[in-house]
Write a structure and sequence with these properties.
The complex is a heterodimer.
Chain A lengths: L4 H10 L5 E8 L13 E8 L4 E5 L6 H8 L7 E6 L2 E2 L5 H5 L2 E4 L11 H7 L19 H13 L15 H14 L4 E5 L7 H18 L2 E5 L3 H7 L2 E6 L2 E6 L1 H4 L2 H8 L4 E4 L6 E4 L9
Parallel strand pairs in A: 3-8, 3-9, 6-7, 7-8
Antiparallel strand pairs in A: 1-2, 1-4, 4-5, 9-10, 11-12
Helix pairs in contact in A: 4-6, 5-6
Chain B lengths: L8 H11 L7 H23 L8 H12 L10 H36 L11 H14 L2 H4 L5 H21 L7 H25 L2 H11 L8 H20 L1 H7 L3 H6 L4 H23 L5 H13 L3 H25 L8 H24 L1
Helix pairs in contact in B: 2-15, 3-4, 4-10, 4-13, 4-14, 4-15, 5-7, 5-8, 5-13, 7-8, 7-13, 10-13, 11-15, 14-15, 15-16
The chains are: A alpha/beta, B mainly alpha.
Chain lengths: 292, 368
């Protein structure tokens, strides 16, 4: 099926191709086609350079998660193409995609009591060679174990290796999910609301982990976030969606501006400069003062 | 395997810190657990051979087993009464019970991973009733006896089981998810409809045959002929081996369909394969033993608590423990009211039903 994942991975970094390129994308869920003929994603085009962190922001229901899933090859676009390192994802198998791109989903529910190490090792699945005579046994090669080990060190969950994932706190569990994605040895990491439901210290922890991973592994990162400040502080560029249409894409300074936010979200916010980084910082305006 | 010279010793040491701490299933642990369970299974089978309407001494049991293994004439008159009971009735029945129990547990493990639900079970979901309806329809039409070369009962059982499995899945699915409550509800309703249809078939059958059908429906084991047992061994062990081959895939499927796809699994295709394999196994099991409930739910649950969730170990472990469980249940069923027998399905339901309720209550507690 086209190039192998190794060749593909090579081209993502070496040939100067954008890691991801989306051309004139249209998408809608099959159920929404009956009522009204609106698109979930309409005429979206952009590209993600290798090694960059792109944030996708927008109001509820603007199609952020859908866009991420289309990028991941989990949803098929109705029209337009997604190019993964120059290759249309339509021509690639799920297996080929999985060897280059890992996904950290928004919701992570583990029904059965797997240990942390078992969960992280599942990230090795796309790299396993399943011969038809192997009875699904062992097959954890040295490479698998070392990759899982490395991923657990980087996300600081090694000390939890033999614990059950169901017994962990929200922040620990999110790190385990990221470790599983890293064990996949991806070149592109997609994250859907990685900081949702986490307190501020865990938000900082996850965000600086993502920044560190980009630096150390030369990862390309696309993340969806509700939090405009996280997008502003940690992303190289920000993509704004409104009602399924790409509204604006650019550096935080170009996108996170009061007039743009008023247009996208329909409300007024205060934007000033972050005292340490100088990047835009969004805060709520003074509301109706209850004490007057 | 981590002592490989390929790795720097420091890394190898660091990795072995957690691989040896029981965090994952290593080959060493796999061999230890499965080896132990095989030894235990043999011991349980031999123990249970002693009991029944008449007690057979251990010495006679061993003699009979040796006779079969030496391939001597198993229907020879020289065996004596205990020998004949052992060789022609009890041994094939115990072996059949072991295979049926193992298959039911294997079906349970697969369905639970596939539906991401620890309460899934072929009996609770109505897959067994679907298979039973198929098999009773075949009996009603007399197909089972007409073409003795084609195994019509398992075939119809397979079709019925597959149909109800697909139906359940379609009914309970909403927006790509399978919520626990709608799944169980769909199972209960489907079960009721299918049971009514089976009752209808029994009511229009002639009374002599319907009594036998009823006993079979309640779940009972009988002694098969050795050729039939041989076919059944090949069939069930074959399907279980294919499932075993998919153990890693089952692991990843439990994380949810989207994650499984992002890890490179073509979920639609894999799901179809697994539905087909479970239906094949259910059809065969139901056609030989009727509806034996709860083995498929209770056993995987207990085994998961004992040896973990990794399907590489969970699947064969559940099959072996499920086999032992059913052999013991059947021994109780045939000795409790000897010389008459209780259908083994009643024994497993009485043991498994309360356990199911207990699990349901635990879940409710956790949700509140």
């Amino acid at each position: 099926m086209g190039k192998t994942a190794v060749e593909l991975g090579h081209s993502v970094l070496a040939e100067g191709n954008p890691a991801l390129r989306v051309v004139n994308l249209f998408f809608r869920y099959s159920t929404t086609s009956e009522q009204g003929r609106t698109w979930t994603l309409e005429q979206v085009s952009f590209q993600v350079a290798a090694g960059e962190i792109l944030g996708i922001v927008g109001p509820n229901g603007s199609g952020k998660s859908s866009l991420l899933k289309v990028l991941a090859g989990l949803l098929r676009p109705r029209n337009g193409i997604v190019l993964l390192g120059g290759q249309p994802t339509r021509q690639l198998s799920q297996h080929d995609i999985a060897r280059v791109m890992a996904v950290v989903p928004q919701e992570y529910v583990q029904v059965f009591p797997f240990t942390v190490a078992e969960t992280v090792l599942m990230g090795r699945f796309p790299h396993r060679t399943q011969h038809f005579w192997s009875i699904g046994l062992g097959n954890d090669t040295d490479k698998d174990l070392v990759c899982a080990h490395q991923a657990m060190i980087e996300t600081d969950v090694l000390s939890l290796a033999d614990r059950l994932v169901s017994d962990l706190s929200g922040g620990e569990r999110q790190r385990v999910v990221i470790a599983r994605a890293l064990a996949q040895e991806p070149q592109i990491l997609l994250l859907d609301e990685p900081t949702a439901f986490l307190d501020i210290s865990h938000q900082i922890e996850i965000c600086s982990l993502i920044a560190r991973l980009r630096a150390e592994r030369q990862l390309t990162v696309v993340l969806v976030s509700h939090d405009l400040n996280i997008a502003s502080q940690y992303c190289d560029r920000v993509l704004m969606l409104k009602e399924g249409k790409l509204c604006r894409i650019g550096t935080p300074g170009e996108t996170i501006k009061p007039d743009v936010l008023r247009f996208v979200y329909g409300c007024d916010v205060v934007v000033d400069a972050h005292p340490q980084t100088g990047r835009p910082r969004v805060t709520m305006p003074m509301g109706v003062n209850p004490t007057r | 395997m981590i002592d490989s010279p390929m790795l720097p010793p420091a890394t190898a040491h660091a990795v072995s810190q957690w691989t040896k701490a029981g965090a994952i299933v290593t080959l060493h642990r796999w061999l230890l657990v499965i080896g132990g369970l095989i030894v235990a299974s043999v011991a349980v089978l031999v123990m249970c051979l002693q009991f029944g309407a008449t007690r057979v001494e251990m010495r006679a049991v061993m003699e009979a087993i040796l006779t079969v293994f030496h391939g001597e004439h198993i229907d020879a008159d020289g065996l004596g009464t205990p020998g004949i009971i052992m060789v022609q009735i009890r041994l094939p029945r115990v072996l059949m019970g072991f295979l049926v129990g193992g298959s039911l547990a294997g079906i349970g493990v697969t369905l639970q991973a596939l539906l991401r639900n620890p309460l899934a079970d072929p009996y609770v979901l109505g897959v067994s009733s679907g298979a039973a309806l198929g098999a009773s329809a075949a009996m009603l039409l007399g197909i089972g006896t007409a073409f003795s070369l084609v195994p019509a009962l398992p075939l119809f059982g397979f079709l019925g089981g597959l149909l109800s499995l697909v139906l359940i899945y379609r009914l309970a699915q909403s927006q790509g998810r399978l919520p626990v409550h709608s799944l169980l509800l769909a199972g209960v309703i489907l079960n009721a409809i299918l049971t009514a249809l089976i009752m209808f078939i029994t009511s229009i059958m002639d009374p002599n045959r319907s009594a036998g059908l009823m006993a079979w429906l309640m779940g009972s084991l009988t002694a098969p002929s050795y050729p039939a047992l041989g076919v059944f061994v090949l069939y069930t062990v074959g399907v279980l081996a294919i499932l075993m081959h998919k153990a890693q895939t089952l692991n990843v499927l439990t994380l949810g369909e989207e994650i499984a796809r992002s890890l490179g699994i073509e979920t639609e295709w894999v799901k179809k394969q697994l539905f087909l394999l479970t239906a094949l196994l259910t059809g065969a099991v139901v056609s030989v033993s009727g509806m034996i409930g709860f083995v498929g739910m209770v056993i995987p649950h207990v085994v998961r608590m004992l040896i973990g969730s990794d399907h590489r170990l969970l699947l064969p472990g559940s099959a072996l423990i499920g086999g032992m469980f059913l052999v013991v249940s059947d021994t109780i069923a045939r000795t409790l009211l000897a010389p008459s027998e209780i259908p083994v399905g009643i024994v497993t339901a009485l043991a498994g039903g309360p356990f199911f309720l207990y699990l349901l209550l635990c879940r409710k507690d956790r949700m509140n």
